[in-house]
Amino acid sequence: MMLRDGESAMDAAQRPGSLPAGGIEAASAPARPRKIIHIDMDAFFASVEQRDDPSLRGRPVAVGGSSQRGVVAAASYEARVFGVRSAMPSVTARRRCPELVFVKPRFEVYKAVSAEIRAIFAEHTPIIEPLSLDEAYLDVTENLQDIPSATAIAEAIRQRIREVTGLTASAGVSYNKFLAKLASDHRKPDGLFVIPPAMGAAFVEDLPVGRFHGIGPATAAKMERLGLQTGRDLRAKSLPFLQERFGKAGPYYYWISRGIDERPVRANRIRKSVGAENTFSEDLFAFEAMASALQPILDKVWRHCETSGLRGRTVTLKVKFADFQQITRSQSVPLAVSNRAELERLGLGLLQPLMPVAKGVRLLGITLSALADAQAETPALQFSLPL
């Protein structure tokens, strides 16, 4: 294949007529392959703190509360060496890294830096799908600067982010969202990786299923029990097999195991809800045990509210029992939930009337909906945050 001036192998492979003909992949591929970039800031919150306070540079830093019930919102790479991760209880993080420095979150600062980064994205494409303050998908199939190479655009964006913010970003470039996200994780921190069409299916084959975006710990454990450890294992199963065992998610798993993901990059998606849930290794029966199990779930939901500036008026409790029966209970309030304590009060208020339970509880979840910007009087367009 001949490369045009300034064009990478991936870009050349995505020119019309460059994909191999025949087979299920070719039949399911878009008529014109997309050029997708996934940008992910490196340890964003912690890196902002280290940038603004030179005394923190080179030290293990955790952004979050240091109290007994505190949770790590972000960890620097120096802290990650010790196994400190986001969403980890602060007491656990301190135990793993006694020298850990806790810094209170400054969400207004992070939002301002995120706006600077988003403005850089907008110099290249209007098709931007932010996932959170620190990551986004960009569709650069057509781009504002007429740069033929998606790889060159990704490198230009990374360089511009460094110049404007003093921070580093990792980028993944591919022909779909699933692979672009995998690619951005591949060379972190401060890396760039490209997965061209000819490499997509093979790249997925040897990856553990737990690395797949959209497969959480509970699903990964279920796949492990079914003998599905890698993308190759997943690809060996039929669509009916996966649908029977994973329901509506089955087709998604079927196609991504083949390197296929036709989801478009969606700009300005309306965020309808923020939620989190957890499946327990042992069924719960007592209210006290369930209330305790809800704490990290509430922490995760409220952390996303703080990060995004979103607030909501409707709290929904999800309960799944040992026999897989599932129920939900909701309550709406006149004004948006303004703090975590209120979210906890409403969540536990929905749980209490269900007591005592006749059968064990295997999953609990909390969702906050009827969202609006915390500083707005009416609901606003918001970007989706994955949980």
From TrEMBL:
Cofactor binding note: Binds 2 magnesium ions per subunit.
Site positions for Substrate discrimination: 45
Compartmental location: Cytoplasm
Enzyme active site: 135
Top-level EC class as recorded in UniProt: transferase
Primary location recorded for the protein, binned into one broad class: cytoplasm
EC number of the protein: 2.7.7.7
CDD domains associated with the record: PolY_Pol_IV_kappa (cd03586)
InterPro entries, per the entry: DNA/RNA_pol_sf, DNA_pol_Y-fam_lit_finger_sf, DNA_pol_Y-fam_little_finger, DNA_polymerase-Y, DNApol_IV, PolY_HhH_motif, Rev_trsase/Diguanyl_cyclase, UmuC
GO molecular-function term, one example from the UniProt record: magnesium ion binding
NCBIfam families hit by this protein: PRK02406.1
Cited HAMAP family: DNApol_IV
Protein name per Swiss-Prot or TrEMBL: DNA polymerase IV
Annotated gene: dinP
